[in-house]
Amino acid sequence: MADAGHPYPSKSEMSSSSPPAYEDVAGEGSQSSAPRPQQRSSGAVTLTIHGKEIYSSASQGGQPVYSLTHALDGHELNQYGVLLTRIEDRTVSSTSSRGTPTTKVVKRDVFALRDAPVLHIGHARYEIDGRRYLSDKRGRMSRSSFGVGSGWTAWGKGLPSFYLQRSESGNAAQVGETTDSSFYEWREKENGPLIAMETRRRWDMVNKVEISAPRLELMKSWDDFDREYLDFMIAAWCMHNWREAKDIIKEPITWDEFKEQARVTASKRKQVLTGGGRSTAFGLAGFAT
User: pTM of the prediction?
Assistant: First the structure.
């Protein structure tokens, strides 16, 4: 739990409403199944983002394994970003005469997901910050490239690295839906072994609403992963889903708005010109999109 005065709600204030059945979260709306380039181990699980909660196919009683303070709908983040909270059952000793152990739900904040600076050089770097939370580490995430075959990269000191590469589906996109590749292959290094296969969420591009939720199929069982490793993996998964949603829901700018942006950009560059006509690094930075 964050310190007093922190903008996030206390864990006791988290919603206690009954979550949907896992089958309802993971099964509806999905028209295609992920390719299987390698065999998943026995007990491998599938994770699904449903609104502000993340569910696992291995969860008992439909309890979420992580929660978010905001849905990953692409809307602008405030200065505090989106807080990712780990949810797990802990066995506690009973003080009753019977001595029967009981379990309680423990919620611990692990990472805050924040937008990239407005001005930057090259690909925007989105922040996955755990310095004030359980992780106590800070990671970054950025696009690895644009266009066909593009993906994402996540990394950080003391944290695992993840490379996400688009994988083509054998099913053609339906009219009015997203036309990008349907899957991301997750690896710890380029051309390394597959650790997870992500089914990207599908969108109604006309109404800009989600058709099916994103899913992440782990190649190993839940218990085979270190929980801190999973924390950063889930944080990176949430981060790129928020950023891709932002690309989809944003409205195209008008011609007048484009001209005004060009005028402001030219003015800013002119202000940072140094003697001899050379621009500073700041002056070469572009606006995030």
Answer: 0.69
- Rounded to 10 degrees, the C-alpha dihedral 167/170/173/179 comes to 20
CB under 8 Å to 230, separation ≥6 — which residues? none
Determine the average pLDDT of the residues in 197-220. Answer: 86
Strand 138-143, strand 215-221: pairing: unpaired
Do 44 and 217 touch, CB atoms closer than 8 A? yes
Task: Give me the pLDDT at residue 98, please.
Answer: 66
Rounded to the nearest integer, the mean pLDDT of the chain is 74
- Report the SS3 class of residue 279: strand
DSSP letter at 146 equals S
Predicted pLDDT at 133: 92
pLDDT in tens, 41-56: 567 899 999 999 999 9
Q: What is the C-alpha separation between 72 and 29, in angstroms, rounded?
A: 18
E-strand spans in 2-101?
44-50, 53-56, 66-68, 82-92
- Where are the extended beta strands (E) located within the chain? 44-50, 53-56, 66-68, 82-92, 102-114, 119-120, 126-129, 138-143, 151-156, 162-167, 183-187, 194-199, 202-204, 209-212, 215-221, 286-287
Look at residue 159 in the predicted model and tell me its pLDDT: 96
Here the tokens at position 166 are 């688009």
pLDDT at position 263? 78
- Residue position matching structure tokens 């998964």: 237
Cα(168)–Cα(173) distance, integer angstroms: 11
- Taken as a whole, the chain contains a residue count of 289
Residues 6+ positions from 226 with CB-CB distance below 8 Å? none
What does residue 2 show for φ and ψ, rounded to 5 degrees?
Answer: -70, 165
Q: Whole-angstrom Cα distance, residue 188 to residue 38?
A: 15
Name the pairing type of β-strands 194-199 and 202-204: unpaired
